[in-house]
Structures are given as structure tokens and as C-alpha cells.
TrEMBL record:
Segments forming a coiled coil: 301-366, 596-710, 748-788
Pfam family, one: PP2C_2
Domain of life from the UniProt record: Bacteria
Protein name: Serine/threonine protein phosphatase-like protein
Domain PPM-type phosphatase: 1-244
InterPro entries associated with the record: PPM-type-like_dom_sf (IPR036457), PPM-type_phosphatase-like_dom (IPR001932)
Keywords, in A-Z order: Coiled coil, Membrane, Transmembrane, Transmembrane helix
Native organism: Leptotrichia wadei
Transmembrane segment boundaries: 266-285
UniProt keyword annotation of Translocase present: no
Keyword match Disulfide bond: no
């Protein structure tokens, strides 16, 4: 027990002074480990002053004995308990209603002391014969001292030394003056508990002087009492002094802390923390719900806008939704982040943001697809079928690749329409080529060929709903009919001209017939061609007959000359000359003219030798035969030449017809190839959507090969842009295939293979113009694979 280690001697005296009743009360208890001293000074003017002092001292000693401790809190608790007990007594009877008391409490652990007071009871600590410290009063005079308006030694003379600021029994809460730090005691220390009747009549220096004079502390108290009684005051208050002499102290012991109070404080702090946490949780839940509600609203608005085809507004709404989810990312890291599960919340938010970014990418594709469709429709309506086909193919690829809002946007219906438009574009391109071929045929005068081309083009236009184009071709066909009528009129005029010249000018008639025949042949009228051929044959027969007649007449005329009938010869030769003139055979006309001149000369020179005339006759006869043969041969050559020209023209027309047929067949073959290429491309697109990338690449390569064959032919538009588009698709699908294989390697922990394939996938997808969010996803997986691939065996502790 600590009490056995220490030795504390307590001496006290308490008297009424000049008063009839002593209202002071002193008590103390020395326990095994702790001790308590208490003195109270009840107010004399009140009937219950003595009762108040007794209750105060007894209640604090009672409390201390039940809960002995050595700390600041127990003094405060005892003060409050004493105040409670006095107030309870005040309520028992009217006569006690105004009773109050000052109170001083000193506690010790036999090594140190703590003290506290309310009112004007006072504590003194004496060491080495001198007062080293004293307590403060709860009086107005003490306030003046604190404000340096009054010396501390003058308090006992001040008229307001008994005007208390607080006391035990006050209605409100009391705030006792308690020292916070324990005062460590030494041997021969003395501490005193006094009431106002003592300290207002004793000077501190007198206390020190008397202490130095008496070794016996009882004598010292008696000496101090004598000084009180010798005071010049007429009215001496009740006075009490208790002095405790420390002759030995126990070993040091730390001041006990009030565990119950600590527990209360801890519980209070826990409650406050819990309340704060609950508030934060509720606030976070409310904030999170508000953010999620706003995000849901933005998502709903985005869905509504996309159905209205307002793609830009939809993307803006989704970006606002991303902004809301960014707010859900906690910033806390480290230990706070660990306990608040911040990393998971950030990952969840990032996952949701990735989903929204994927939606934005899908909408971008949809937007691009619908833009391509609009541009393709405009090009289609303007007749630019190649460019329209490219736009439709791009739109089809984007829509095939899209999975977002597929049903709401009627994607399948749109794809069916696109396929129809693509097929129509191919057919309409063929129709346009046929129309152009018809135009060329019209310019060349091949009206039948033009009609065939126009009719084929018109059938295609009708099958593809181009009624306005059909009406244009019908107008062209009507124009051809008008031109045919004009051509028929021209042919008939030429034929009539030939008829009119048949008797007068066979050569001109023949030329007219040949002209008419060529025109009929171009018009495809084989009946008229046959009729004109007959007329030409009749002309040739008539010409041959006339030539024969003329030749016979010349022979007969020469015979008449030989027979010395020059006059008859001149008549016959003149007939032959007229026939030659009719045939426009100037050469024979000149020859016969010479014969006539010779006959005329023969008449003049009848006397000339008959032998000479015979010789001349023979000469002329041979010459005439030669000329006749030459002329006949010339006619045959002319006829052959004309026949060759006609055959060449017929062959040319036949070749043109064959070329047209070959071109038609070729176009049909190319159309089938392009249609086959489109079907293969559609199959490849679907395989890509189903993530059957290797089969998709094979289909794309097959499509590319067909288009390269078509492009090499060069007669069905430039397919370079389409081939380049296929190359991009192939590169993109190769990227997706590498990505898929890389992810498989990553899953199977083949880190280096995953790094290689994901790197190649990233390069190919970047070249093919893939969206950044997909590239970012690959980069994230690539970073993970690289980190794993580069980790050494001793770095097993690393967390990624």
C-alpha cells in the first residue's frame, strides 16, 4: 500500500470567530493508496450555511471513498456531486433554498497532490518555509487582481473579497478552479486548507515567520490563531485552517486517467465518427443516386435522339453521361482507398465509361452509314452509279458491323434496301452504258442497233423503277422513228431518182440505186434492199443489152462501109453513137464519131482502094472488139467493186452487231461477276460480325480477285476505290483476328506471343482507321501483356 510508504500528518483548527455559530466544515480520509482533504465555508447570512458546508464535505469524501482516483476528472466529478447534493437539500425546505458554500478539495496519491476550489476557500503550498503557491478565489477582488488593478496582498482588505462569482449550491453549472498538472511533494512540504476567516486576518509573511519560529506544527497553528484573535477587525468570520505536514512520500506514480471518461470520449468520438460516416455514406448514396439518375436521363435522351436520327445530339448526351460517371470515380487511394474499395469503384466506372464509348463508336458508325446513304442517294439520283455504289458499300459495311439499336433503327430493312440499291446501281450502270451505245449507234445512223440498245436499257430502267429515264429513252426512240422516216424518205428519193434516170443516164441511175440500197440496208429493210438490187440488176442487164446493140450497130455500120454503102453506114453508126451517148460512154462516142467521119470521107473518096477500106474495117472491127471487151470488163469491175463495197458495208454492220452482242454478253458476265462479288462481300461482312475472321478474310480475298479481273477488263468502270476499300477491310479483319489470337494467348499466359500479336493487331487497326476506343482497349491489354512478359521470376510480389 502506498500509504505505508508515506507519512502525512494532518492538524487543523476550526472556530466561530466572533460569530455565534461555526459554519465551516473540514474532513479528510487517508485510504490505502489515496487521500482526500476537504474544507467548506457556508454563508453565515443564511440559515442553512452550516448544513451546506457539512453536506459538501461529506458528499465529496463519500464519492471519493467509493471511487478513489488521482486525476483532474475526479475533482470535477466530486464538485458536481457536492453541488447536486446541496441543491437537493435546497429543494427540501424553504429555509435551505438560499444556502451556498465555498469548497476546497485536495487529493493525493502520497507522492503528488491535485486541488480545486469553488468560492473563496484558499489553498497554500509551503516548501522550505516559504509559500510557493496558492489558489485563486472566485471573487470580484480576485478579478481585479487578475486585471492587475489590485495587488494580491491587498485582497484581504478589499470590500468585495466576499462577493463570490460562484459557489456550491448555485442554480447553474459550476466551473471549479482545478489545477491540471499534479504538484509533486517533497519531504517537509506543508499544504494548508483555509477559509476566508483565516486568510483575511493573516498575512502570508506572518505565516512564514511563525512557521520558522515553531518546529511543532500544533504550536504554529496556535500562534496563527492568536494573530487572528488579535486582529483589529470587530467582526471576525468563522476561521478554519488544516495543515498537512509531509514527512515522507511514496514512490512516484503517474496520474491515473479516468478510464470511464476516456471510454466515454472514445464512445463519443466513435459516435461522432459513425454519424459523420453515416452522413457521408448517406450523402454519397444520395449523390451517387443523383449522378446515376442524371446518367440514366442522358442515356434515355441519347436513345430518343438516335431514333430521331439526331446522331450528333445523341453523342453529346452520351458524353454528358460519361461526365456523370467520371464524378463517380473516388479520388482516395492508399489505405483509405483500400477500405472504401475505391479501386473497384473506379474500375466499375471505367467499365461503364468504356461501354458508353463503345456506344459512341457505334453511333459514329451509324451516323457515317446514314451520311453515306444520303450521299449515295444523291449520287444515285444524279446517275453517278459508281460513286453511289461505293457509298452504299461503305454504309452497308458500317451497318453490318453495328449491333447497337439494330432493331429500333430497322437495320435489317435498311440493309435489304441497300442490297437492292447496290444491285440497282450495277444494273443501271449497265443500262446507262447501253443507252450510250444507242446514242453512238444513232450518230452512226445504225437506227436498228440503236433501237435494240435503247430497248434493253429501257427494260433495265423499268425493272429498277426509273420511269423518268424510260420516258427519256422513249423520246429517243421516237426521235429514231423520225430519223428513220427521214432516212426512208431519203432512200425513196434516191430510188425514185434512179428510176427517173434509168432511161436517160444509167450510171447516175445506178449510183442513185446504190445510195438508196445502202440507206435501206442501214435501216434494216431487207425487202427494199432486195428490190433495189433487182433494179440495179435490171440496169446492168439493160446496159449490157444496149452495149451489145450499140456494138452490133457499129459492126453493121462498118459492114455497110465495107459494102460501099456509106450513107447506110452513117445512119447505123449514128444509132450506135446515140446509144453510147445515152450510156455516157464518151470513149465509144468519140470512136463511133470517127467512124461516121470516115464514112463521110468515104463518100467523098469513093475511088479509094476497097482493100484499104477492108483493112480499115478489119482494124476498126478489132479495135471495136477490144474496146467492147475493155468496156465490158470495166463494167464488170465496177459491178464487182460495188458488190465488194456493199459486202464490206454488210460485213461492217454484221461486225458491229456481233460486237454489240459480245459487249452485251460481256456486260452480263461482268454484272454476274460483280453481283457474285457483292454476295461474297456480304458473306464476308456477316462472317466478320460472327467473329469468323479467317473465313471472312478468304471471302474478301475472293471478292478482291473478282474485282481485279473486272478492273483489268477496263470496260465496266474503275474498281480501284472498291479494291482499296476491300484491302482496308482485309487489314481490319486481320487486325481483329490478331487481337482475338492475342487475347487467347493472354488468357493462356503466353505473354510474348500475346505481345507480338496485339502489337500487330494495333498497327493494322490503326492503318484501317479503326475507332480510338478499340485501339485504347488493345493498348490496355498490350500493356498488361508487356508487363507480364517483362516480369522476372523474382518479381512475383509485383501487383499490376
Amino acid at each position: 500500500m502506498r500509504k505505508d510508504e508515506a507519512k502525512f500528518i494532518t492538524e487543523f483548527l476550526s472556530e466561530a470567530g466572533t460569530k455565534t455559530e461555526n459554519s465551516d466544515y473540514f474532513g479528510y480520509v487517508l485510504l490505502d493508496n489515496y487521500a482526500i482533504w476537504a474544507v467548506a465555508d457556508g454563508f453565515d447570512e443564511e440559515e442553512g450555511a452550516k448544513v451546506a458546508a457539512r453536506i459538501a464535505v461529506e458528499s465529496v469524501i463519500e464519492y471519493f471513498m467509493l471511487c478513489p482516483r488521482f486525476n483532474y476528472d475526479v475533482i470535477k466529478e466530486m464538485m458536481d456531486y457536492a453541488n447536486l447534493k446541496v441543491k437537493e437539500k435546497q429543494e427540501e425546505a424553504q429555509k435551505y433554498s438560499l444556502m451556498h458554500t465555498s469548497l476546497l478539495i485536495v487529493i493525493s496519491n502520497y507522492n503528488s497532490i491535485l486541488y480545486g476550489n469553488v468560492g473563496n476557500t484558499r489553498f497554500y503550498h509551503i516548501r522550505g518555509g516559504y509559500i510557493v503557491s496558492q489558489s485563486k478565489d472566485d471573487t470580484i477582488a480576485q478579478l481585479l487582481v487578475d486585471e492587475e488593478a489590485l495587488n494580491v496582498s491587498d485582497i484581504r482588505f478589499h470590500r468585495q473579497r466576499n462577493d463570490l462569482l460562484q459557489a456550491i449550491g448555485d442554480f447553474g453549472k459550476i466551473n471549479p478552479n482545478i489545477i491540471r498538472s499534479p504538484v509533486e511533494l517533497m519531504e517537509k512540504d506543508i499544504f494548508c486548507l483555509t477559509t476566508v476567516g483565516f486568510w483575511e486576518n493573516i498575512d502570508e509573511h506572518d505565516m512564514e515567520n511563525d512557521l520558522s519560529r515553531f518546529e511543532d506544527k500544533k504550536q504554529w497553528l496556535n500562534s496563527l490563531e492568536k494573530r487572528i484573535l488579535a486582529s483589529l477587525r470587530d467582526n471576525i468570520e468563522n476561521y478554519t485552517i488544516a495543515q498537512v505536514e509531509v514527512q515522507a512520500v511514496a514512490s512516484p506514480e503517474p496520474m491515473e486517467k479516468d478510464r470511464s471518461k476516456i471510454i466515454k470520449k472514445i464512445l463519443l468520438i466513435i459516435m461522432i465518427v459513425v454519424v459523420i460516416i453515416l452522413f457521408i455514406v448517406i450523402w454519397n448514396v444520395k449523390r451517387r443516386n443523383g449522378i446515376l439518375q442524371a446518367a440514366t436521363q442522358y442515356e434515355k435522351l441519347a436513345d430518343e435522339e438516335i431514333l430521331k436520327k439526331n446522331f450528333n445530339n445523341s453523342i453529346d448526351d452520351l458524353k454528358l453521361e460519361i461526365g456523370e460517371y467520371e464524378k463517380l470515380k473516388p479520388k482516395s487511394r492508399g489505405i483509405i482507398g483500400f477500405f472504401t474499395n475505391a479501386e473497384k469503384k473506379r474500375n466499375d466506372a471505367d467499365k461503364k465509361i468504356d461501354e458508353i464509348n463503345k456506344k459512341i463508336g457505334e453511333i459514329e458508325k451509324i451516323k457515317e452509314a446514314f451520311t453515306d446513304i444520303d450521299e449515295g442517294n444523291e449520287l444515285f439520283n444524279n446517275g453517278n452509279y459508281d460513286e453511289a455504289n461505293v457509298k452504299y458499300q461503305q454504309a452497308k459495311y458500317n451497318l453490318n458491323d453495328n449491333t447497337y439499336k439494330r432493331d429500333e433503327l430497322n437495320t435489317e430493312e435498311i440493309l435489304t434496301t441497300l442490297d437492292s440499291r447496290i444491285n440497282s446501281a450495277v444494273k443501271l450502270k449497265e443500262a446507262k452504258a447501253l443507252e450510250m451505245a444507242g446514242d453512238n449507234a444513232v450518230n452512226e445512223g445504225s437506227f436498228n442497233l440503236a433501237k435494240v440498245s435503247y430497248k434493253n436499257a429501257m427494260d433495265i430502267y423499268l425493272a429498277n423503277g426509273k420511269a423518268d429515264y424510260v420516258s427519256q429513252i422513249e423520246k429517243k426512240i421516237e426521235e429514231i422513228s423520225d430519223k428513220e422516216k427521214t432516212a426512208y424518205n431519203g432512200a425513196m428519193l434516191a430510188e425514185n431518182k434512179g428510176d427517173s434516170l434509168a432511161q436517160s443516164n444509167i450510171n447516175s441511175s445506178r449510183e442513185a440505186y446504190y445510195q438508196a440500197r445502202q440507206m435501206y440496208q442501214v435501216l434494216g429493210d431487207t425487202v427494199k434492199v432486195g428490190e433495189v438490187d433487182n433494179k440495179i440488176q435490171e440496169l446492168n442487164s439493160q446496159q449490157n443489152a444496149d452495149l451489145q446493140t450499140a456494138n452490133n450497130l457499129v459492126q453493121e455500120g462498118l459492114s455497110q462501109i465495107t459494102a460501099n454503102n456509106p450513107a447506110q453506114a452513117i445512119s447505123i453508126l449514128t444509132q450506135a453513137k446515140n446509144i453510147y451517148q445515152k450510156m455516157k460512154d464518151t470513149n465509144n462516142v468519140n470512136i463511133v464519131g470517127k467512124y461516121i467521119n470516115q464514112a463521110q470521107e468515104f463518100i467523098k473518096f469513093e475511088s479509094q482502094n476497097v482493100e484499104k477500106l477492108k483493112a480499115q474495117k478489119l482494124e476498126y472491127s478489132e479495135k471495136l472488139k477490144s474496146q467492147e471487151t475493155e468496156y465490158s470488163e470495166k463494167l464488170k469491175q465496177q459491178e464487182i467493186q460495188l458488190q465488194q463495197q456493199l459486202q464490206a458495208k454488210e460485213m461492217e454492220i454484221k461486225v458491229q452487231q456481233e460486237q454489240m452482242e459480245q459487249e452485251r454478253q460481256k456486260r452480263e458476265e461482268i454484272s454476274r461477276k460483280i453481283e457474285n462479288a457483292l454476295n461474297l462481300e456480304m458473306q464476308a461482312d456477316q462472317l466478320a460480325i460472327d467473329e469468323k475472321f479467317e473465313e471472312s478474310i478468304a471471302k474478301y480475298e475472293e471478292t478482291k480477285k473478282i474485282l481485279e479481273e473486272v478492273n483489268t477488263d477496263g470496260n465496266f468502270g474503275n474498281q480501284v476505290a472498291k479494291i482499296e476499300g476491300l484491302n482496308k477491310k482485309i487489314e481490319k479483319i486481320e487486325g481483329y483476328l490478331l487481337k482475338k489470337n492475342g487475347e487467347e494467348d493472354l488468357k493462356n499466359k503466353r505473354w510474348k506471343d500475346a505481345v507480338e500479336k496485339l502489337t500487330q493487331a494495333k498497327e493494322k487497326l490503326e492503318k484501317s482507321g479503326t475507332k480510338q476506343n478499340e485501339i485504347a482497349e488493345i493498348e490496355k491489354k498490350l500493356k498488361k501483356a508487356e508487363k507480364k512478359a517483362n516480369k522476372k521470376w523474382w518479381q512475383f510480389w509485383k501487383i499490376f
